[in-house]
Amino acid sequence: MAYQVPEPKIFACSQSMVLGEKIAASYGAELGNVLFSRYSDGEFQPSFEESIRGARIFIIGSTHPGPENLMEMLLMIDAAKRASARHITAVMPYFGWARQDRKDKPRVPIAAKLVAKMLETAGATRIITMDLHADQIQGFFEKPVDHLFASTLFLPYLKSLNLDNLCIASPDMGGSKRAYAYSKALECDVVICYKQRAKANEISHMELIGDVEGKNVVLVDDMVDTAGTLTKAADLMMERGAISVRAVTTHGLLSGNAYERIAKSMLTELIITDSIPIDHNQKKIRILSCADLFADVMHRVHHNTSISSKFLM
Question: Where are the bilayer-spanning segments (predicted)?
Fold first, then answer.
């Protein structure tokens, strides 16, 4: 009799429960039962309400701020390890703290490295994530990291728009590699925005490298936080003669005055994934779900089949 690989168990952190339910449904499984107990001072404790001994489990949870989201993932991994789970895969659609991937001035932490070490110490045996802020973060781990690209979601949508005179743009120099990958897939030109910051989340000056006159521009980036860079870039491009400006960003942090800036900007549309739950009441925002992508990769990981097609731009 052929050996049947036991099906994995899928759980979700509280901050990603909606996405977790979508991923589990796409996988063809029920989301596992986790009880979250909370003390009056705010301390919390997750508890798996079913046996996971010897099982492969997937724990779904984005680690966007505040810090309790990361802490919840760490506690669930630790609980799974102590409950004798065989494989513990942290499925992190958004890997938080990734912007602190190096020392950009003296006496600051490298938070992305610290988070990687904490996940491994807690007991994670594999990480699945999407569009890291910096590719080299994969090297912070000693465990396998499956780094997926949301371009597998965005490119079909952009092609469906059938835009003439398409042009891909990067809102900063750091995103030029991503912009060139999109331009290659869509066979179009690239322009780059050069910006200078007065401090975090505050732009002092922006210039455009390239010509956007008469073109439909698509800005690509890994995340949108306060939307200051994207909206300023969109306004600048419209001033330089662009027909329209859309933005494709994987992770919608949308903090501060982001919604107001987007509504008042020259952006035609902001396309994001549901890697981070948002209060969606903005006409300009379109959300593409990443649930099928993660469910497919989880299935391939469990059955030891190739996932290299999900790494390609």
Answer: none
